[in-house]
Amino acid sequence: MAEEINLREEYDQKYGFSDPEIFAFKSEKGPSHALIDLMSDMKQEPEWMRAIRHQAFDHFLQRPMPQWVAPEILNHIDFNSFFYYLKPKGQVATNWDDVDENIKKTFERLGIPEAEQKFLAGVTSTYEGEAVQHSLIQELVDQGVVFCDFGTGLRDYPDIVKKYFGSVVPFNDNKFAALNTAFHSGGTFLYVPKGVQLGMPVQNYFRMNANEGGQFERTLIIAEEGSKAIYQEGCSAAGMLKSGLHAAIVELIALDNSRIEYLTLQNWSDKVINLVTKRGVAYRNAEIFWSDFNGGAGLTAKYPGIYLLGEGARGNVVSMAFAGSGQYQDTGAKVIHAAPNTRSTITSKSVAVKGGRVAYRGLVKMEKNAKNCKSKVVCDALLFPNSRSDTYPYIDNESSDHIQVEHEATVSKISEDELFYLQSRGYSESQARSTIVNGFFEEFAKTLPMEYAVEFNRLIELEMEGAVG
């Protein structure tokens, strides 16, 4: 019991703490066209972006709420109860010492400066949907790599942003894509020039602290021909939030012979509703690799997607979810084969404990010109008593030319033999269950950098606290 209390204290100290709410600007609650004009003025955006925001908001107002996932939750969202624009004090700093003291203390407690020094080629720190600090090693700057918050990217590289913005996820894709397009703030812009290979990841860390805050970051990553981009993000929220809404968009563009690796480790408060659209396009012989973990939110609906548009393109998605008490993780992946000789793999693993609910929701589509294509889906769930797991796989094949699609799914309980063996070696029952769950997630953990893997294992250990029976 003392060990479990120490785990909770450790978690609250590192992630669950909250800070005083001190902002340079805090909007009134609720979305509006007037707020869009105010945001666009404050951000000094080009008129084309302002126009898209207004158009997207009109679509959001007209678009009905989706009913295919958690209508019992989504239908009760009061969109007028959230703050849609929160601007922290100060400007985006390139020197850590120049960040506002309260915000700096937050990220220091999360370990971001240390991670930047030891493991990262660049870092952006986002607080309440706005970048507060940014850096990139000089070697990458000299090679023409651009890594900054989205607002800076829009201001400094408007032609590139205008070319690709909304090209993968248009505002009318879904209701929450429209909401993000209308009120997006913060996020990431990463541009890797032709032939440049990132050997180390760049990172953005997103922190939600304000009660009833909305976070709508926009991420745009372009890998030019023959290049390689490695991006990772961490997300957390103060444990004392009454409510929070997170509706992000991520667009990836992998041009010929390029590779994009995208890692997400999300650890939101269970008061956050997490509704994210992530999608990439891969051209000839390009590859996109999503590695995605979802935990903590009261509801997550997220399905990283890949459109394989060029011959020989490849897509790989590793999707992980953990649902504890009062949590519903509806996750999975979508891959569209739209060109010959394309390959995809989807690996989904989920754990539901203490009455939590998980669901795999996926799509593999073979279009008419998808010749000689292969896809494999592996979907595994580990289920504890009084918890729930669902699987909603969908395969759509319009091609008849040498197509191979595999799908396998299992739902299992923790083995009593494994528990007995570990307990006979001195593990407590709680430790034994945590060890088994960590082993279940091993495929995901292998994709993590060392510092992320350590944090991941500790999160699982904490979430497994008291998960017996």
Return the average pLDDT rounded to an integer: 84
Number of helices: 14
Output the radius of gyration: 22 Å
Low-confidence stretches: 1-5, 11-18, 112-120
Helix content: 25-40%
Bulk shape: globular
Number of domains: 3
Structural class: alpha/beta
Tell me the major beta sheet.
12 strands, mixed
Tell me the distance between the termini. Answer: 17 Å
Q: What fraction of residues sit in β-strands?
A: 35-45%
* Multimerization status: single chain
Number of strands: 24
Q: How would you characterize the overall build of this protein?
A:
The protein is an alpha/beta fold and 469 residues long. The protein folds into three domains: 1-302, no CATH class; 310-413, no CATH class; 417-464, no CATH class. Helices cover 28% and strands 37% of the residues. The chain has 14 helices and 24 strands. Helix 2 packs antiparallel against helix 3. It is globular. The two termini are 17 Å apart. Mean pLDDT is 84; it is low at 1-5, 11-18 and 112-120.
Topology:
Layout: H1 2-16, E1 23-26, H2 33-43, H3 47-62, H4 71-74, E2 86-88, H5 101-110, H6 112-119, E3 122-127, E4 130-136, H7 138-142, E5 146-148, H8 150-156, H9 158-164, H10 175-183, E6 187-192, E7 202-208, E8 213-215, E9 218-223, E10 228-237, E11 244-246, E12 249-254, E13 259-267, E14 272-282, E15 287-295, E16 299-302, E17 305-308, E18 314-323, E19 328-337, E20 343-352, E21 357-366, E22 373-383, E23 388-397, E24 403-412, H11 416-424, H12 429-440, H13 442-445, H14 450-463
Parallel strand pairs: 3-7, 6-9, 7-10, 8-11, 9-12, 10-13, 11-14, 12-14, 13-15, 14-16, 14-17, 15-18, 16-19, 17-19, 18-20, 19-21, 20-22, 21-23, 22-24
Antiparallel strand pairs: 1-2, 3-4, 5-6
